[in-house]
Amino acid sequence: MATSASTPRNRRAGRRSPLASAALLLIGLLATGGAYAAITASSSADAASQTQVAQLAEDGQKLFAANCASCHGLQAQGTEDAPSLIGVGAAAVDFQVGTGRMPMAADGPQAEEKPVQFTEAQIAALATWVASLGPGPSIPEEQYLKGDDLPAGAELFRINCAMCHNVAGAGGALTQGKFAPSLMGVTPKHIYEAMITGPQNMPVFNDRNITPEDKANIISYLKFIENNPSPGGLDLGNLGPVSEGLFVWIFALGAIVGVTIWLTAKSN
């Protein structure tokens, strides 16, 4: 069969057009360049982040040397007057310093809450440096500071916390001059940090004891009772039967005795 005269003799079956080859080459170069740029940008961001953390830790070490080393030691190794901070994590520093408990104003059975002595930036620097000394609990993420199951949070609080802090979170007395503070007005972050670090006489509730989600539920329960007044009227300090019994003895029985004396005097 004769070949058509209109078909070029040098045309081969399946041969790629030069334009198509150039386009494929251009696409490959663009893809390679984009991947390289992404990796380079990521590496640069990581390097910048590491530099920022290193600078923050350096600032924290200087603050620690000036304000905390006299008790805890220059390397936070602890002394006769204060425990080691190696391995306590950023959460412990953020709680203790962020609530004003540290630095302590004076020796006592336990560190009490007082006005905060440092700015948020300084607290972050101190926490970063202490966290660099050894692994420990980190500052909680925002997603774990609010739960959506109030009944579960209330039950967990009654089981694990109410024996010291009172079922309404009003606090209570312990032994040897110590006490469980009121939880009203405490920020969600500090409540979470207290649960994972166990300050003062409080036990540590790690994630195997109480999951992060359940810790968030406990926080939400505490915020609920903080923002909702007592439905029964006067809460009498939320101290339960002690305050209620005292109220009855002083006011109710006192009123009865007073009326009785008045009636007796009238009858005479």
Compact description:
The protein is mainly alpha-helical and 268 residues long.
Please describe what this structure looks like.
Its main location: membrane. Its EC number is 7.1.1.8. InterPro entries: bc1_cytC-su (IPR009152), Cyt_c-like_dom (IPR009056), Cyt_c-like_dom_sf (IPR036909), Cytochrome_c_Oxidase_Subunit (IPR050597). The chain is about 55% helix and about 0% strand. The protein has helices at about 20-65, 70, 90-100, 120-130, 150-160, 160-165, 190-195, 210-225, 240-265, and strands at about 170-175, 180. Helix 1 (about 20-65) packs across helix 4. It has about 270 residues and is mostly helical. Residues about 1-5 have low confidence and may be disordered. The protein has two domains: about 50-140, Cytochrome Bc1 Complex, Chain D, domain 2 (Orthogonal Bundle); about 140-240, Cytochrome Bc1 Complex, Chain D, domain 2. The chain contains nine helices and two strands. The chain has a two-stranded antiparallel ribbon with strand order 1-2.
Average pLDDT score: 84
Strand elements, count: 2
Give the percentage of residues in beta strands. Answer: under 5%
Radius of gyration (Å): 33 Å
Counting DSSP H or I runs of 4 or more residues, the number of helices is 9
CATH topology of the largest domain: Cytochrome Bc1 Complex, Chain D, domain 2
Distance between the termini: 148 Å
Reported CATH architecture of the largest domain: Orthogonal Bundle
Low-pLDDT segments, ≥5 res: 1-6
| Major beta-sheet overview | 2 strands, antiparallel
Widest β-sheet, arrangement of strands = 1-2
Oligomer: single chain
Helix content: 40-55%
Subcellular location: Cell membrane
EC number: 7.1.1.8
Enzyme class: translocase
Protein name: Cytochrome bc1 complex cytochrome c subunit
